[in-house]
Design brief:
Elements: E1 2-5, H1 20-28, E2 32-36, H2 47-52, E3 56-58, H3 61-67, E4 70-72, H4 79-83, E5 90-93, H5 101-109, E6 113-116, H6 131-150, E7 158-160, E8 163-165, E9 169-173, H7 177-188, E10 192-196, H8 203-208, E11 212-213, H9 237-250, E12 256-259, H10 274-279, E13 285-288, E14 305-307, E15 313-315, H11 325-343, H12 358-363, E16 364-367, E17 370-371, H13 397-432, H14 435-456, H15 463-474, H16 477-484, H17 490-519
Parallel strand pairs: 1-2, 1-4, 2-3, 4-5, 5-6, 9-10, 9-12, 10-11, 12-13, 13-15
Antiparallel strand pairs: 6-16, 7-8, 14-15, 16-17
Helix pairs in contact: 1-11, 6-7, 6-11, 15-17, 16-17
Amino acid sequence: MKIGTPKEVMEGEARVAMTPDSAKMLQKLGYDCAIETGAGEKAGFPDAAYEEAGVEIIKTAAALWKEVDIIAKVQPPTDAEVKRLSEKKTLISFFWPGQNEDLMKAAAEKGASVVAMDMVPRISRAQKMDALSSMANIAGYRAVIEAGNNFGRFFTGQVTAAGKVPPAKVLVVGAGVAGLAAIGTSTSLGAITLAFDVRPEVAEQVESMGAEFVYLDFEEEVEDGSESGGYAKPSSPEFREAQLAKFRELAPEVDIVITTALIPNREAPELWTKDMVEAMKPGSVIVDLAAEKGGNCKLTQKDKKIVTDNDVTIIGYTDFPSRMAKQSSLLYSTNIRHLMTDLTPEKDGQVNHNMEDDVIRGATIAHEKEVTFPPPPPKTKAIAAQKPKPKEKELTAEEKQAKEAAAFKKQTQNQVALLGIGAVLILGVGLIAPASFMQHFIVFVLSVFVGFQVIWGVSHSLHTPLMAVTNAISSIIILGALMQIGSSSFLVILLAALSVFMAGINIFGGFMVTRRMLAMFQKS
């Protein structure tokens, strides 16, 4: 079968669904590859690069749609492109079936199989095909770059001979894929970064990236993100009011706001109101990544950059991934290549459209002249939210002191009891054992006791490196074993040989483990 990619017809779209590298991988699956002349030019992939990769160059879109069996593209097909579909053809692209029902029905009537990249289920196995996450990652990164381009100061703070420059303060609303990408970029540029999300389970991710999570003084039952494919759910009116109040408090302090909040198949929630924009400092910047769905900011205008009366710049571009066309094309074509790998289990260049497969079924919106959207819920859920741990009651100073005293008293009683039992046992052995034996036995017992007390007080996290060193050092017993090897008794020689063998394992093993532990803390 042949897979082909036409030139994108949507104005301003610079991405391409097939790159020379992805074409080579598709050829390994048994497919012939074709591309329309100039399809990759805007993304930095000339026709010559495709020819070197063994891709056939077809002059017109009409010829390509007619000749290939599988069409891979970025944007949803136009009405004219849907008319070019036929039975036994497969279309792979973004489709947004909830918004393009008539287009979806028309494609189904043609008998073609349509795989929507925006419908790939958010389960672990499908992450390599998740084109939405790939594009959101780029959008989050690019949003910070666009904000910096329109912001009149440094992101990082500086102290120079000319004076002190404070760091920029960035607020990221929504800690999904785009939000986390924006957080990572902002913190790496040196800005003080704050982040908010309605899902408290992402707080650890935010803080691990060097940002500060904005908590609300509001208790609401945590919704399991797995039930909505890992997306946030609509919040209650009370929660929304608490959220807006917090944003109003932060508005005068922040320099840059990046909003990423979207809920599937809904208009974007309004999170940054007109009065918040008016409260921001002159020169501040808002980048609204939800502009395509109406925007999280009240004043956002789709595909435009505006400046308000109080000198706040609001950016509502919807083509952030296309502004980084080469990187976007590399990631998107890799997503498609992974999808084709699942569609071609035998690697024989033939599509096996297995509707029993969670990923393929979830992404397929039309198959065998039937509309298959919406799909059934996947058998495997997205990563579930962690259940909040019950909060322990904080003790007063008197309660803490009483608790510590009780613990110390109990520990002392245990130690005294153990010492008493040990003393009785030693006396019992002394009644029947010779004096020469008791000398060595008492030293042995004291060594065990002291060693136990030393090791018991060490934190569990240090046990591995500690035991590695002590194993090596304690193998001094190898000297005693070597001295006994010359004994006239066969039994003594055998025991001495075994002692040398086991002590050798301790010595070499102990130092090898220690070396590996130290290597973990060294830069490669």
